[in-house]
Protein 1
Amino acid sequence: MLIDQIKRTTFEEKTYDEWQALAVKSLRGLPFEKLVTKTIEGIDLYPLYTEDSPKLDSLHPIRHAKSENGWIIGQEQYVRDAKAFLQSLKTSLKRGNEAIVYDGRKSFDWGQEELQELAQYAVKYPLYFFKVSKKDSILHFFDKISAEDREKVKGVVEVEDGAFVKQFVNLRTIGADVVDEHHRGADAVTELALVLLKAVDETKKVGSFSALSQTFFTRFAIDTHFFMEIAKLRAFKVLWEALSNAYGENMQPIPVICETSKRSFSTVDPYVNLLRAGNSAFSAVLGGADMLMVHPHDVLTNPTATSIRLARNIQLVIKEETQVNEVVDTAGGSYFIEALTKELVEKVWAMFVEIDQTYTYEQYLASDQYKTHIQSLYEKRIDAIAKGKHSLVGTNVYADLSANDEIEAVVQIEGRLATPFETFRKIFKQEQPTVALLTFGELKDFKARADFISGFFATAGIETIGSPAFQSVEQALDWVQESSLDHVVICATNERTEEIMPTFLAQVSKDFVIDVAGKYPENLMNEWLEKGVDGFIYQGLNKLEKFTDVLNRWKGDSNS
């Protein structure tokens, strides 16, 4: 019977080589390397990983590098005075926040009454105080805590001089905080190498690695490269064990404090930041964060009660709906992530050893070598975004011209990737050239290309005008003559474009900029440039350079 045949059916096991052969065949002549993606860390990402992948030998388990399951939900209070801080804290703790988070760069005065109330919270909830000046009045709340309650105070206090905190044995005061370097452009390898370098320097100061392990913490920003960020946190745990072994010590778990990165955040279309924050938050959780802070989607401008609630709920939803807090190393066992973790470990250790031979942590950050390195990484990121190799939805692709681009960033993040595009949107919001798409042929012939050009200009805040579908050059010239235009872009198939360009260039009155959509043989492009074409727009063109050229030509700088 048929059902018996179905039950006896088996599936033939396929090998990796067979899969690769089929993949190459589907590429229709292109090399297999087209499926390999190289990250900014210099790591090749392959389309398929198996148990036989070369990076999967001799992996180190990381489950023992985390003290307990789950993570602490931390939420910053976006307020301007002590009373508002306490009121906001009280509300957030009732609604899912589990920690007292304070950014010392946004300090304000604290009165005795507020300090006393804060002290009462501090014995119940962990503290996470970052970038605090020793002159900050908030630190006086420690004086309000009785000697018998000091052991109840737990967490992290990142302060210039933490000597007075020594009475609080469960507070950590020495850490490797690489959030700022992350925002300046550091990749995962650089961030992790800096953490190791800082740990070595601090070990020399405290006298032993064992003593350092009692008071050390790490703090990372988690970006939107989902798997790389998971691997980054996992790699830290492997590296920390390796460093412990190098000092002849048993590895002790170190708190890994995380926050969602603001490097990819946009002010123009902030709701997309919700997706970025959710993506980053899930990476942090799967990577093994011990505390996580999710920034509201409008953190760069002016967080509202709604945006703060949404940010907090991202963590609550992950914790309640996925149950990942019940597993120590959720990503463990994934061939891809295990291989990525190992490759990160190898690259980080090599970089750390090389730097440690010449510099201390502070010396390296101040060195020309590091400044050149971090600038190079930033420029690579900007280049990838400008050429569309990396997408910032709402910024360099799928820009929404109805979005509010008049909002100024209150929080300035050095190295924020959307800033160059936001600058152009601000410029062209005030006044912009009239750009028309000259379309030829049937709709099916030019629609894809016209949509691409329209989207291209939209990322600078420039709205394009669509022309009728012309069947001849004469029709296009008549329409152009009747319109007041600053810039036109020819949109047609390659064959049609090559057919119409000689006539168009011979008859057109050159009082506006002419661009052509698409790429063509070099000799043809050079010929058209000589006869009056100003440029070509195609996938992979540097948008920022093109917008600079558009602006300069429109304003009369023909030498741009």
Note: Residues 57 and 339 are 9 Å apart (CA to CA).
Protein 2
Amino acid sequence: MRYLKVGAAVLNQTPLDWEGNARRIRGVLEEAAREDVQLLCLPELCITGYGCEDAFLSPGVADAAREVLGSLLPHTSGRLVSFGLPVWYRKALYNAACLVSDGRIMGFVAKQHLAASGIHYEPRWFSAWPEGALGEISWDGSALPLGDLVFEADGVRIGFEICEDAWVASRPGGSLAARGVDILLNPSASHFALGKHAVRQRLVLEGSRAFGVAYVYANLLGNESGRAIYDGGALVASLGEPLASGPRFSFAEGQLTTASVDVDATRTSRPATSRPGCELSGGVPVAGLQGASPALVEVPFSFEERDPTPPRTAGPAWEQSSSLKEEELTRAVALGLFDYLRKSGSRGFVVSLSGGADSSAVAVLVATLVRLALEELGPAELASRLPFLTPILEGGEKEGGEEDLALLARRLVKGLLTTAYQSTRNSGAATRHAARSLAEALGAEHHDLDVDPLVQGYLELGAKALGRPLTWEEDDLAMQNIQARVRAPGVWLLANVKRALLLSTSNRSEAAVGYATMDGDTCGGLSPIAGIDKAFLLRWLRWMAESGPSGLGPTPALEAVTSLAPTAELKPPEEHQTDEADLMPYPLLDAIERAAVRDRLSPLEAFRRLGPRFSELPPRRLAFYVERFFRLFAQNQWKRERYAPSFHLDDENLDPKTWCRFPILSGCFAREIAALRAYVDERYPAPTPG
């Protein structure tokens, strides 16, 4: 047995925040020194930040990354550390990881498979490194190897799979195992999506088993650049068994997860197909690159054997919850809001609280971020991260006692969250009560604003301009929209005065069909729930009202919200307006959206797939809803283009900037809808009148 101590760090970085990123890296390097870690893996592109976008193409970014790396080298004394940074080679930019030994750079491994789907756009900036290719780059007067490298330190071989490399069928781990690698490092920037962590765990565990290695996985943490949220979750595994796992959704700036790995055990248990033979020959020549075979880099480093430590894989209780999806959503949005707030320099949040599901969900998520952050960080650290809250925090905590912490959380919510119920003559007492009750329960600063005189003023202006009064019979949509638009200036004013961030409250189902008023309920600087479908959001609200996150408990005041049918309240009360009457049942809408957008089915294909699932609907009614969805989806792409930035929470997103691109002007599925109509008319003819 030969035990070595390895570590995986997660970091909450910010693109191009050179001093901040370096400080956080130094923090985990210092912790690794205290923990006597011998081999440390840092996340992908941790020096620059992963989300630099087109700034990557500026030569100055790579130059700055070089300088920062140089400043960090002295902090690697006595250990091996991998850093992530962009590297230029022969007019191409590569996403690389370098291995540093005791302050000395030993070489660079470039990413072979670039993430190019959905939220990822790596081929726009980086080139993929060909398997087996080698090169050299000049670094401070020295020639350093770059390419498909294996590092050998004291007889222990180390290789890399960089994030996406592990998600493809032909992952590099197979060839690295054949070259005798003992430890695989995976520096990643793997964004959060609901349910994705389980897939990530399988990739790490199966990689360690199939390749007969110890596998060290490091990830980013937090809302790095605005849209993507990283959940952390460092992992160490060996031979298919977990050895250590780090927490997810932490509010910390960086965290270290360590484990003991037995390199002798991996060698003796390694599958016969991956045992090294002539592993350093037979590389594939690549035109324009130096070398033609994989390279072994000798690293001057000695591993001192360490005593084994027991595996540490038990996660928090919420990870085992039957409501895991609800728990993940809560913690992801809370962390995303916290980071967006502090990185944008804002001093709070403003929400137009209608008493409906969407705005109530946003308000509750803001309050939840306060409770989670206070619980993890404590008052002092929270004050250092959000200095504008210091006056509230000073003298607010007494020794011990959950009640004192709960009272402090309420005071913090009052200083952080401002809500406003903006009524018109079409607003109901039930929504007014729901909004006020929820705001009081959360501790928010709440305002009840009557905007009906403003609405009537605009209607009078319109009537004067048109030379006739506006009526519901002729001007229904315009009269609804003006009410929503009138609500925007007041909350923008509050946000400006308070230097706060106005949160838009639109959800994904509304975005799909354009059921939102531009410059009205879509107003805001951030739209935190725009990636969540309405059917799940309603389920989440019921869970929050009855159970709530592990350790926090329920929010009973939400029962006043969940008891109401979702409604825009823009028509006269006697019309009994509801969202589903205006559109269709939300579960059906979300099912059609998945068929149309995620699975790329035509209207006819979507109709045929969904018929058995929604058999309670008459076929012609289902066809009507399918046609309505496709028509509205195509007509309202322009709205989706104008939505405030949203969090990526689900790999079924509609954000045109990161996930679902669709033309603003199109044929609106006219041919496809005609095919659906012909199919339905043939198989389900309309009843003959009389």
Note: The first strand starts at residue 3 and ends at 11.
Protein 3
Amino acid sequence: MNNLEFANLLFPDVKHDIAYYEEKYPPRNLPETALVTRSAPSPTGFLHLGTVYNFFVNQKFARQTKDSVFYIRIEDTDKKREVENGVASLMHDISFFDIKINEGVIGQDKEIGNYGPYTQSKRGEIYRTFAKYLVTQGLAYPCFCSEESLTNDHNVQIAAKERQGYYGKWAHCRNISIDDAAERIKNGEKYIVRLKSPGNYSRKIKHKDLIRGETEFPEHDIDIPIIKSDNLPTYHFAHLVDDHLMRTTHVIRGEEWYPSMPLHIQLFNLFGFKPPKYAHVPCLSKEENGSKRKLSKRKDPEAAVSYYHEKGIPTDTILLYIANLLNSNFEDWYNKEFKEKGQVNVNDFMLDFKKIGTSSMLFDLEKLTNIAKNYISTLTTDEVFNKTLAHAKIYNSSFATILEKDIAYSKKILGIERGGVKPRKDIAAFGEVEESCWYMFDELFNARELNYQFQNISDKNEIEKIVSTYLEKYFDGNDDKDTWFEKIKKLSEEFGYAREVKEYKNNPSAFKGHVGDISTVLRVVFTTQNQTPDLYEITKLLGKQRLSERANKAKL
């Protein structure tokens, strides 16, 4: 039996050859400068922040380069890890981000583009065609080793401190003759198909990564599985076939795949294909006990994108934070954009491979929170209201009901200190809005157990007199801010407090305190809070009746 006959025995269902697929998926008609990038997630559960990171960086390089293509390929050959409706869930979650997809999978059983199927489980015959070619060339063979045997060899290698893998004396099925292998297959023995690697571990190869520069590796010499017992390909083999036929120009992926470069280069060389350019980005990491570790979906709640949805952290800020981690010049660009435009759009930022570092990127939730605060501070009142309401309808229905009860009033609350030269920056997530302004809604104010923490002025009799005098003598809902503040100053003088903080500091023995102490008394009585947005806008919006009711409720 010759190699071709043996290949036909192994792959009786294969109807075409490689040339057929080369013609079916021709090189793309794109300018030389254009990029074809991809993200290739597996439908194995919740959307991980690392997946968003990969989506973002791949689509960003394509998006910022004219005539480029970004496509989605679903890698679902590991059926043990796949979850029901995993693709639909994945695409639904990613839809919240401003990710532009040109081709590929766009939903459960939904694809667009001319280079599909873009779902690996639907490409079985294509992979087997390429595997059959390797068998005809004497570069692949069936392996009959049991899991028990492989595990035993693995343990022996570890104990002996030998290099792990199926190679050399450990490659037990490599030299079985074609006739013997054919007989065993005909007798029904189970097998997988392995690469017959021509590599020599003592030789070196060079590879230039777009981020890490030129590196020298030992040649790959391990006979890896390429077709599993279920007739589906392994990741490494499918990656070769898909990236070639889909005409991928740039593979931008996590640094954990960097050690696989010798194998991937070898696979492309065996077929005579030009490999794409590779860029291995640092992984997202977390500091723990003084050292770094990879952000884990099992250990870290912030690794799940659902964490940010539940809190109401804007997805745009996540992309801005990822850009901040990726490029060293982001901070300067971000500050300049904010200063000149008062807002930022991550699509205006240009990623640069040369400015991506090689060290793992420390994920800092506090930094992300600061970006979120800046981002929300740039939104209009209507935008904040709409986004807060949309979030509340999913995660806080009672607050959604309150917001919708009087939309005009709710918008006025959310509009306090919004816009202007120095907008408020106290909200990092739409899930925080209720806690930031609950005291403005009677339903919430009257339902809570209230706690009044007064500061410099703590005598209840004096507090009662200050508040009653303000309401009876000074409050006027029609006052502008300057008039209102002038009245607060007069109120301060009336009770022996300095009109200006500076005046008090220059002569503290002459006064009981200053205008800030009077303002704090009013703020605490009307809101129970020591710190709030602009007190003038709060009192104007609450109105005299509410203010009086709250003064009575304080039981001074």
Note: The mean pLDDT is 94.
Protein 4
Amino acid sequence: MTLHRPGSWLLLAAALSAASGTTAAQTPAARWRTLETAHFRVLFPEELEAWATRVAERLEDARTVTAGAVGYLPPGVTDVVVADPLAAANGFAISMLGSPRLVLWASPPESGSAIPERADWTDLLLVHEEVHLAHLLRPSRSPWGRFSSRLVPIGPIALRAPRWVTEGYATLLEGRLTGGGRPYGAMRAAVLRARARAGRLPGYAALGSSRNDTWLGASMAYLGGSAFLEWLEADAGPDALGKLWRRMSARRSRTFDDAFRGVFGEDPETLYRRFAAELSWRALEVERRERGSVRDGEPWLDLRGGTGAPALSPDGGRLAAVVRVPREPPRLVVWSTEPDTEALRLRDERVARALARDPEDVAPVESGPAPRRRIAELPTLDGAPPESPRFLGDGTILLVRRVPDLDGDLHPDLFVWEPERGRLRRLTRGADLRDPDPSPGGAFAIAVRSRDAFTQLVRVDLGSGGITPETAPDLERIVDRPRVSPDGTRVAFLRHEDGGWRLVVRDLGGASEDSVTLPPGAEPSWPAWTPDGGSLLATLAIDGFLDLYRVPLDGRPPERWTRTIDGAIAPQPTRDGTASYFLRIGAEGLDIRRVEAPPPTARPAAGEPDLAALVPAVPPR
């Protein structure tokens, strides 16, 4: 590898413009460097050199592995731009014949996201994006196709394949080549199960849409597309997709549907409907097998879209969450935890009046949660939505907003919101902090600093905004979701190492820490302390199901609090520890539910039913 300054500012500016949208993030005025390998030229700002070096060391291996799986090895040199404009995990490929490019964002993903845990993030990102290049740069074997590609440098697959094919195939191989990825994660199975059971799988036309504004609708090209391709391969054989790519790039020009019919015998829409029918049966079969043991609490608030994790006030009287509704900016809402008695009274009066006017009418069945009174609401301000709310002892709320610097790069910073006065006060500037959790007295918070692809735990003084490290910055081991113990002396958090997330408890201000013992194969996310400080309530992914478990810190086996068909995440225990609020995965998004603690004798069931035949309604082994 050779390190030097980049030679083409035009290339750099074009790639960064595509990466950052309308912002001027990571402009050519920054101190840029270049690393070169045999087939890649990696351009990066100086502060991202450590992660860019890691990327450069793995690119050649990823190229060889993905080309072997796809069946085509792209020639020439690929330009790779490393940046971090939005403080978010992402990447994309620009598959122009003769001048391909990759744009990779350095921030690691958070735990509990749709990106599964059982692989190194850098490997997942490189494999997914390099599959795009090996797949979409395959040239046409048609004389006319070769001629037209000189005018418009796009290959026949990139030109004709729908989005569900390109993203689904990259996701399929992301899992197959890394042993992790979305195909092996519990989240893909949970989303597909929830949509299929409700009859809400997208139609064929919507499967590849990037403008689908239903919950995770644009992500169905990855989740549903990869599952559909797996289903097609299972029936037509392991070389079926390779045959499809060869037919699409053949000397004889074909539409995607024509090429597809020549391999699978029918058009893609017809077979997708069959796939959707079989997936729906598998999801309903999971429901049938689990029906007698389901324990998913009671509805507390019926919401749609990507609702954020709930936060409970110290007195237990208020609950806050970020509400994300399609086509609307996110907003932070605070509700009373008591039912809205006035709304209930008015509802009962309306029903009574209707029955008085028409005694033969029938009163409606009230099956949803009781109405809740909204106390306060913080909208998205200046394009920066509120994130990760946590109550302080005085009733104010600590939260995160991603604010642009002078170059347009977004930096997550801490703010304090006073719901009663409507006042928002900024606590840090350019600190790159996420997911803070305050101490019981409100003097400090523990947060994750994610900067230049390194993560670490830091202590933030909530009076001055001063920051002191709790752990050293680490490129290899990602830390996430810290939670301060009820006595303020320890912090529980997640750490990604050895291809998976580990649940860790660490003494604050010291180096003593312990990994929490979990059942074999369990993947943890969303830890929360129980009020007594002796256990953690967390989401564990076991056998493809996401459920809440109370995990004692003395080595006793975990106690299962929920048994859902679709999934339970983000627990928020009540003050007395006898119940927990949580988010339940549904067909239209996440809603808030409440579950009571199980009887003391409850334990994880031994001998879970064998559901391997129901993939992709459950993850493959």
Note: The two ends are 38 Å apart (CA to CA).
